[in-house]
Fold these 4 entries.
Entry 1:
Amino acid sequence: MKKIILLFSFLFILNSCMEQETLSLEGGEFPVGTWTDLQYNENGFSMARTNRLKENTYGFIFQNNGKLISRSNSGFCGTPPIVTQDYSGKWKVEGDVLKLEMDFWGGKIIQEWRISSASSRSVTVEITMNEYKYNS
């Protein structure tokens, strides 16, 4: 009986020391903050932390209260010069997935992001779900 209790105690201690793979929203880690310099790849993109979004650049501002600002094209035309606009939205973390719902020029975008890597200065995101709901 003592061996079983000792074994469970050891397993409990070992499990508590293992690194958790969940997003930490404290201490300046992703996603809270301002993110820009989007670099797109096959399944998503990477972006860098910044102090503010420059005019007519893409990016996101994640606020502590679950609200976000998405800066994207102000209209359907993607021919330079691009003019951007700030759109409101909301975000939440569920496990290792970041769920976003944000407005855009034609309606609403619903996305799910899986974080491939994150540090205090950069993040790489895989878009696992992407849905557009257009205004009628």
Entry 2:
Amino acid sequence: MKVGIQLINLNIMKKNRTKHIITWAFRVIAAFIMLQTLFFKFSGAEESVYIFTQIGLEPFGRYLSGGVELLAGILLLTRFYAVGAVLGLGTISGAIFFHLTTLGIDVQGDGGTLFIMAIVVFVSSALTILLNLKEVKAKYLPAKFQTSVSA
């Protein structure tokens, strides 16, 4: 009986370790993409200025989205990763929305690179939250709401 319990515990530890590694991979991917685009937003790169001019938010929107992505990218690499993932989801949802409604998939001949990066950040952030939903709910939702959201 004792051997069976030890095997179950070992299996649980392996699953937790795998989940931890996968979660870290998604966190790093989302953070890396958001943080590496900051240079272009904050330096006023031609493509960034063009994008935010097209959507009518230049320069305020460029600086605001850059600031939110900076915060999200940093938080994704800390114990507050869930907050970073939610911020990343929010800001990248705006980027995806404008790609689909105003900018198009291919912006200034980039072959859809910016759109694909936005999708990768969205998926990585969403999976970071979903893989850790039980822990995220326990940490950030009041007790009366924890049972209404499925794990």
Entry 3:
Amino acid sequence: MLQGKDLRGYRIFIELVDDELDVLAPLAREETFEPGTRIITEGEPAAYLYLVKSGKALVKMTGASGQDVVLDIAAPRMSMGWSALAERRISTATVDVVEPTEVISFESERLRRLFVENPNIGYGVMRGLVVIVSRRLDRCRSHFAARQ
């Protein structure tokens, strides 16, 4: 069983104190995915938030031309599946595993209930999420600006 200290170091939880991580830990489960596994599919319901413990996965979207555009490479200490925390809960990207990958997963419904019961935890996670989304947007903006 995971402990709060196992969640320390993930950017999405950067705003949380140890006691709050201890509350989150029982909601987590560990999973392993093999190369070629699609963990998340763009446009499908987003049911889980994933934290990468080891391995790598490509985060990509379908571009206007219909081709995949790689947005990021999810590596250790990164998160993926943030749409699970959004109001619509529809995946905005596809995630494909490219090497054996261990993750910590959280079911979105359980997280959302916890956030209602413990608003400080929900607020802290959302603050961490804003930083992550902002950084990805900056990287995408830079990438596309360089191609023009």
Entry 4:
Amino acid sequence: MSVVKTGLTRHQQSILKFLEKLDSPISAQNLYVQLRSTNQRIGLATVYRALEVLKLRGLVQRRTATNGESLYTTVHQHQHYLTCMQCGQSIAVDSCPIRELETQLCQSLSFKVYYHTLEFFGLCAPCQLEVPQSLNEDETNRIPVELSSHS
């Protein structure tokens, strides 16, 4: 679904159209490289500024990868993730468990939601096998006695 919004610069429209064609999130750096490979004359700073404007207008959403890099999609690409804290792999979740809550909040608080994010962090199956047995879930959730006594 191609969206051309009035009041957007040609670069902002170009970036929005490009994001609509993607199936997965993309970093600003990779977006810049992709746009340049299609012979679009655009600077990296312009890409960052355009993404920020599109985000503030409710057209683009940003999520942060485990390496700290921002990843962008259109708000129409509604997706949630399970993200491995060790290898950084993100696994898409097929359903949205909070749509009903979003609707209730919008109605009860007269708030317009452009998008929401939901992401769970943990270890994927292969990374769980790499974690030493001594670091099982019970032990990682405990505070050491010597730390808890220093109040």
